[in-house]
From TrEMBL:
UniProt entry keywords in alphabetical sequence: Hydrolase
Family: Belongs to the peptidase C59 family.
InterPro entries per record: CBAH/NAAA_C, Ntn_hydrolases_N, Peptidase_C59
Name the UniProt record assigns to this protein: Linear amide C-N hydrolase
GO molecular function: hydrolase activity
Annotated Choloylglycine hydrolase/NAAA C-terminal domain residues: 4-128
Domain of life: Bacteria
SUPFAM superfamilies tied to this protein: N-terminal nucleophile aminohydrolases (Ntn hydrolases) (SSF56235)
Length: 144
């Protein structure tokens, strides 16, 4: 099956994550010829990376990452999904942001005479730029 049909197939044939996990080893994606895109880090044209995420009514989720020969790596979802590089890389890289918090700092008491209050909300994720949407998305999921 091709990537464009894969989501419809999964949503039409399985009722929950358990069923999807059981079926995935029997499924594969065909290699398709998409217009290559230029990798931002290397500048080398490469195929479009496709990752898929599914959630069932209980809130349980998985991320499916196509690998060699159309097979899939299966990850339990943390509620956020991204594409290249591999999902495992993103999970490991979260360790670089353990200081981030899904809430505002509020204020900082420097001494008895000076308390500095934040100007606006969003200070808990201050320093994350838009390219790190996987990480800010992870914290946003925790807030809901």
């Amino acid at each position: 099956m091709v990537g464009a049909e894969f989501v419809s197939y999964i949503l039409s044939n399985f009722k929950d994550i358990t069923e999807i996990k059981e079926a995935i080893p029997k499924l594969a994606l065909l290699k398709t010829k998409y217009q290559p895109w230029e990798d931002a880090e290397t500048g080398i044209p490469s195929p479009i990376p496709m990752h898929f995420t599914f959630f069932d009514p209980s809130g349980k989720g998985i991320v499916l990452e196509p690998v060699n020969n159309g097979a899939f790596k299966i990850y339990d979802s943390i509620g956020v999904m991204t594409n290249s590089p591999e999902y495992s890389w993103h999970l490991n890289n979260l360790r670089n942001y353990v200081q981030m918090r899904p809430h505002n700092v509020g204020e900082n008491k420097l001494n008895d005479q000076l308390v500095i209050k934040q100007i606006e909300s969003g200070s808990g994720l201050l320093g994350l730029h838009s390219a790190l949407s996987f990480y800010s998305g992870n914290f946003s999921v925790k807030l809901h």
